[in-house]
Amino acid sequence: MEPSIINVGMAEMAVLRDSGELCSLGLGSCVAVCLYDPPTKVAGMAHIMLPDSERSLDLGNKGKFADLAIPLLISQMTDLGADSQRLLAIIVGGAEMFTFPGRSYSALRIGERNIASVKALLEELHIPIIGESVAGKQGKSVFFNVSTGIIQVRTLMGGLAKFSFAGADSCEQ
Questions:
Q1: Tell me, what's the pLDDT at 97?
Q2: d(Cα 32, Cα 9) in Å, to the nearest integer?
Q3: What is the pLDDT of residues 139-166, one digit of tens each?
Q4: Level-2 CATH architecture, domain 5-172
């Protein structure tokens, strides 16, 4: 049987155990949160659109918001056997794709706000971030090989970053 390849779209999340690949294509201001429990090889990815659900009138899709998606992702991972105390994180995305000359509206800096929200929540949950490819002005795609724990990040203009949950292979090119 061929390993699963799951595309995690905007405001979606997915979990796998042992094998397969989680990928998220075309991250702009969104942030992909990749969590992994190395001993059990349980992996999860959430494609987060917004920093929090505070002002939202529609909370139907919890995957859209950092404050709702990350706890739900952890719950789905523990249902597959992950230990929440061993989870490690790698985060990708949060670019500022659009600029508005002469204006500095913090509300428009969604990428920056997404990154800050994700980092604060992971710190609050005591989940160490062991790698990141965030900010900038280019879109990114992330590919997470569950069996090896290796993540590859490709930027729109051809750049490549590679991270490993084993810590032995962290390089940026």
A1: 78
A2: 10
A3: 999 999 999 999 999 998 888 999 999 8
A4: 2-Layer Sandwich (3.30)
Any idea where the domains of the chain sit in the sequence? 5-172
Two tokens, residue 81: 């056997």
Instruction: List CB contacts of 44: < 8 A, sequence separation 6 or more.
Output: 13, 14, 15, 16, 22, 34, 35, 36, 73, 74, 76, 77, 82
In this predicted structure, the answer to whether residue 171 has a pLDDT above a threshold of 50 is no
Per cent of the chain over pLDDT 70 is 87
pLDDT band at 66 (very low <50, low <70, confident <90, very high): very high
Determine contact, residues 148/94, Cβ cutoff 8 Å: no
pTM across the whole model: 0.91
* Per annotation, catalytic residue among 23, 30, 34, 171: 30
Q: Report the 10 Å Cβ neighbour count for 32.
A: 29
- CA dist 145 and 43 (Å) reads 9
Q: Coil, strand or helix: which one is 112?
A: helix
Catalytic site includes residue 30: yes
